[in-house]
Specification:
- Two copies of one chain form a homodimer.
- By secondary structure, the first copy, chain A, is α/β, with parallel strands linked by helices.
- Chain A is built from seven helices and 26 strands.
- In chain A, a hairpin with a 4-residue loop joins strand 8 and strand 9.
- The longest helix of chain A has 19 residues.
- Chain A is elongated and about 95 Å long.
Chain lengths: ~400, ~400
């Protein structure tokens, strides 16, 4: 039982991810594409906007005709027509001394090169208009192709699609896009003591918590959670369930059974999976040390610790970056962080990364929030519920003093 | 056409939200509850964990029996049984001098008050065990109810449910929870120039962009987007479509037609909606000034500017806080922000809040990122695509200099 490779440090563990590649792409309609990652560059096949548009209600003019005009000495132009929003301006062409009424968003007539806003004009009953302020060429206009020229790169491969990006795509008439597939993540809890959340545990048993927590963590990270329930601590059964789960999943999260005790089948099971290859057993992170990583081709298998707090830290530090890597986002944590000040000393041992659960309390006068440790055994849930995020303490650091400025990773 | 109330400042506009109340609650299963907000307090109806558990593989003991022991002078205890994970320990009761083998997560026998980890014990063939290090009462144990006692408040009303919160609920056997209903948001674009994204616009027409952008913004903010497509600039038709949309929606977002030009039916339509009541026309924010807010009972109607950048700023500043208020999250922006340094001066007029689109470039040596303005007409989309977030400039501020530390709101 002592045939484990030495504990890996967190950077070592993450470097194992380089061996995995992002998932294949799939076409999705824009309405489903928010937060997804483009699997190829998008190039504009047309001009956006397709024609020069007015950004004001007013008069399309030739700017030269307004040169030097003022309220006292207005330029008099002949109004030859009106362009409402949505009208084609193709039949209109401005000759010197002419203007056309135009609405915001209206298409500019031929030979017009500026728009005068209506507020600085005086409409004449005679069909003329007085212009009381000069405009420069291009003023109050968006030119055809000013947003995107024909052939312009609109979005690069690897872009995470935000609402405005989807808007641009719809503006270009692109209604579905190739994005990296979302990783399918099979979730399995192991332990003879576990019963499903909807059952009343008999003496000695407890309800399965990790299935619920991990499914929510996976979905939050952009994956698709596939529930596989609970499997007892039985090698043959675990091997069968895991092998089956890997047929449809890209990732397996097996929680429990990964400490060094007598029931640690996880690493044996992963090693016995067809084409299974152990990558690491154990990582020098606290809480969470017993984290196992194996691969099956481009698929990955994680053995997570059973205690909820440990499973969650390992998820954030290792599973989440790999899920993001699969989805084309890069193997990063992808968590927001805030600057805070330690409200107390945070002791920590050298040679081991530590992730301390902390709560944040706002301070007055714009001072940084105070980070207070929410200590508690890793098997307890209440400290996680009270915490706002994790304070990472590097493995070269022998703890932190009180009043130190730090960066706290926020739970999403 | 000049019967508008004066422009409201952003705090005035937000104070209008106080008149709206969070939506009714609904029961949802845990698997659907991530990110939702609890509509009532959750109290534990049982002990969690339900029994005292070992956090180690080892031996359950009476701590007093290990007092003063060491590797040289071990304590000898009689092993009276073994408790595996999931076993009931009800039939075992430790007398002085007795121990029981126990697995991590195992239920503690009667009268045991600590666990000795297996690494500091020596198993004897005789059925005894040698203990080489003393333990204190409570060591390596999670006590029954240590997480949550009977009747303890687990989560308060208004809590946003995170993965760990859902985990605790499943641990307590609570498989569905009362949460505030997600706001249903009807989205309608108005403008005679608009065609749907899947059509090729004829001359003078452009594709509808706001429907796509706003739907994604709504979903990102936790709402349910209901697409109502495009409606031409026609009072009767707009009134009919809006009235119908409000039958099933909590919020209406009508974009376009809210400038002061000739086709501005939005405020007339909102005022004509049955039980409609105008709250504000115009807010002193740039870009986005023409933002209209009306109510119909507890429902709200927003008139948003047509240009994409303006619509988006108004969404983030005003619609998003109201959606969050409806969902029980409080009328806050709910956007992450980062500290940055201005890469250039940011001129701004006093008396008007400004939200400048900025891109952020990382700096070396841990310096704050540089915020550079991504200027562009509000009708252009490409500046929004290039931007990482918004730099708010308060209405009392006459612009910002170069090299000033600022807080940038990140696009989610």
């Amino acid at each position: 039982m002592n045939d484990f490779s030495p504990l890996k440090s967190s950077p070592d563990f993450n470097s194992l991810f380089a061996g995995f590649t992002p998932l294949a792409s799939e076409m999705v309609p824009l309405a489903m594409a928010r937060g997804r990652v483009l699997a190829s560059e998008v190039v504009s096949a047309e001009l956006l906007p397709p024609f020069s548009r007015s950004t004001m209600d007013g008069y399309a003019v030739r700017a030269a005709d307004t040169c030097g005009c003022s309220g006292l000495e207005a330029a008099h132009l002949t109004v030859i027509g009106a362009i409402a929003m949505g009208d084609s301006a193709q039949e209109l062409s401005l000759q010197p001394g002419q203007a056309a009424r135009i609405a915001t968003g209206g298409a500019l007539p031929e030979l017009a090169d500026a728009v005068v806003m209506v507020e600085v004009t005086r409409h004449q009953e005679t069909g003329a208009v007085e212009i009381c302020r000069p405009v420069a060429p291009g003023e109050n206009i968006i030119h055809a192709g000013e947003d995107y020229a024909h052939g312009a790169v609109v979005l690069s491969r690897g872009s995470r699609l935000r609402p405005q990006d989807l808007g641009v795509l719809s503006g270009l008439g692109i209604t579905s896009v190739p994005v990296y597939r979302r990783p399918r993540v099979a979730i399995l809890s192991t332990g003879d003591e576990l019963v499903p959340a909807d059952q009343t545990p008999s003496p000695g048993k407890i309800r399965d918590i990790n299935s619920t927590t991990l499914a929510a963590l996976v979905e939050e990270a952009g994956g698709i959670a596939i529930a596989h329930g609970i499997c007892g601590d039985d090698f043959d059964r675990l091997l069968k369930v895991c092998t089956k789960a890997m047929e449809e999943a890209d990732v397996l999260l097996l929680s429990g059974g990964s400490s060094r005790g007598q029931r640690d089948f996880t690493h044996q099971v992963f090693a016995a999976i067809p084409q299974g290859q152990m990558l690491s057993h154990g990582v020098s992170v606290r809480p969470g040390k017993p984290a196992i990583l194996a691969r099956q081709g481009n698929k990955s298998l994680f053995g997570l610790p059973g205690p909820a707090a440990s499973a969650m830290v390992i998820f954030y530090c290792f599973v989440r970056p790999l899920l993001r890597h699969y989805a084309g986002l890069g193997a990063t944590l992808g968590l927001s962080s805030v600057r805070a000040v330690t409200a107390q000393p945070f002791p920590s041992a050298i040679g081991r990364e530590e992730y301390v659960r902390v709560s944040l309390s706002p301070q007055e006068d714009g001072a940084l929030p105070l980070a207070t440790a929410v200590y508690g055994k890793s098997g307890l849930l209440s400290p996680l519920v009270r915490a706002d995020g994790l304070l990472p303490i590097g493995q070269e650091t022998e703890g932190l003093g009180r009043g130190i400025e730090v960066s706290v990773l926020l739970f999403p």
